[in-house]
Design a protein that fits this description.
Shape: globular
Order of helices and strands: HHHHEEEEEHEE
Distance between the termini: 18 Å
Number of strands: 7
Number of helices: 5
Length: 151
């Protein structure tokens, strides 16, 4: 990390939590193993979790949320926004990010290529929320490479 990085201390804590989750979860088991384990841990910690079918895709996000809590890092889990057009609900947008300590947006993903993500959309969402710094992590990758996004 460079000296120019916004929120250096908080970002460092986020990255250390990410390392703990990345190194603690194997990527060799079937998804239902993660699902069962994470659901049990979340319920033990009294953390609300997503519907199980949806949770399969949120394993790493839920593990990061738990790790943040264990490390005393204030994190607001993903949000859902009801989209309404001309007074009629169209559906919900579900965001798989965290707002950490009110200043940093954390985007945990598990995809083959982060190039598939439209970073401009993430920046727009960050601006909308008044957040200047985002940290994206890819649990699918074989190396730990956090990506810093400045809005």
């Amino acid at each position: 990390m460079t000296d120019r990085l916004l929120y250096r201390e908080l970002t460092s804590r986020i990255i250390r939590a990410y390392y703990a989750v990345y190194n603690g979860l194997s990527r060799n088991y079937p998804e239902f193993i993660y699902e069962n384990g994470v659901v049990r841990l979340l319920r033990k910690e009294m953390i609300p979790c997503a519907y199980q079918r949806e949770l399969r895709h949120r394993i790493y996000a839920n593990a990061c949320y738990r790790e943040f809590r264990l490390r005393g890092i204030a994190a607001e889990p993903r949000r859902e926004i009801q989209v309404v057009f001309q007074g009629e609900p169209l559906g919900e947008l579900k965001f798989g990010h965290f707002v950490v300590d009110g200043t940093v947006m954390f985007f945990p993903v598990a995809i083959q290529s982060v190039e598939d993500i439209n970073v401009n959309n993430l920046k727009d969402w960050m601006r909308y929320c008044g957040i200047r710094l985002g940290v994206m992590t890819n649990f699918y990758d074989t190396k730990i490479r956090p990506i810093f996004i400045v809005a």
